[in-house]
Write a structure and sequence with these properties.
The protein is about 30% helix and about 30% strand. It is built from nine helices and 13 strands. A nine-stranded mixed beta sheet has the order 3-4-2-1-5-6-7-13-8.
Length: about 260
């Protein structure tokens, strides 16, 4: 049986520890090609580089760094760098959670979305830990559970159509993970995430990030699975249509 062709990418950059862990988890399951940004591209969402060319630099056999976004990396890999289309796109392991509205900003999830838009089954993986320096060994300890999960995902026949899987790993040792839950997106609200300050010349500037997060959602939400020690697997699709509103179309047109 021919080995699976697996494309690995991320948004934390080609030198990120999470990408190394993803490669180690996936290598026994197929032939790996890595195409990843040359620097951190967190919160770039599904952006493309349109105003200057992107340059792939080969760092080893089937290993490329790209001076572009995660979306650029997937497009370049599929349409130029790989001799054959990959069977799966794997994006991660992100250094931090991607739950709730995070998926709208995440470069990690966007890379998987680009794979899906190109017709390739895709998976985004994130580690819902805090300080990476403190969590490096914990993330490494999750390689085996992630490998088992990926092996199951690769066996799905058929893979869910028009769907990507958004996986979040809890900040636990591998042996302490309680299991896997299929989940829905929760809701999160950031407070005090815009920091006003002055630059060295006394001009007003703002720093986006930080603050506190409050989560809400049903028992089946992604953040609740993480809080309770489970791996969260959330199926996502690109169709943002509000179907319930379409069902009320006749009422809509009767409005005065």
């Amino acid at each position: 049986m021919e080995a699976l062709r697996l494309l690995c990418t991320n948004d934390d950059g080609i030198l990120a520890h999470g990408l190394a862990c993803l490669i180690e988890a996936a290598e026994p399951l197929g032939d790996i090609t890595v195409v990843a940004p040359d620097r951190e591209q967190s919160a770039t969402s599904h952006s493309l580089t349109l105003h200057h060319p992107v340059r792939p630099i080969e760092r080893g056999e089937r290993r490329f760094q790209v001076d572009g976004t995660p979306t650029d990396c997937v497009m370049l890999a599929v349409e130029a760098l790989m001799p054959e289309r990959p069977d799966f796109v794997l994006s991660g392991i992100n250094h931090g959670q991607n739950m709730g509205e995070d998926v709208l900003y995440s470069g990690t999830v966007a890379a998987a979305m680009e794979g899906l838009s190109l017709g390739i089954p895709s998976v985004a993986i994130s580690f819902a830990g805090g300080d990476l320096r403190a969590d490096v060994s914990m993330l490494s300890d999750q390689i085996e559970p992630l490998r088992k999960l990926l092996k199951h995902v690769f066996s799905l026949r058929p893979f869910p159509e028009h769907t990507l899987l958004n996986i979040n790993m809890p900040p636990l040792r591998g042996d302490d993970i309680k299991g896997i839950r299929l989940t829905r997106l929760g809701r999160r609200v950031y407070s005090d995430s815009l920091k006003p300050m002055l630059d060295p010349w006394g001009r007003q500037i703002y720093w986006i990030g930080g603050g506190s997060i409050a989560w809400t959602g049903e028992q089946t939400s992604d953040f609740r699975a993480i809080q309770e020690g489970y791996i969260s697997v959330t199926p996502l699709h690109l169709d943002l249509t509000h179907h319930a509103m379409l069902a009320s179309a006749e009422t809509w047109w009767q409005l005065p």
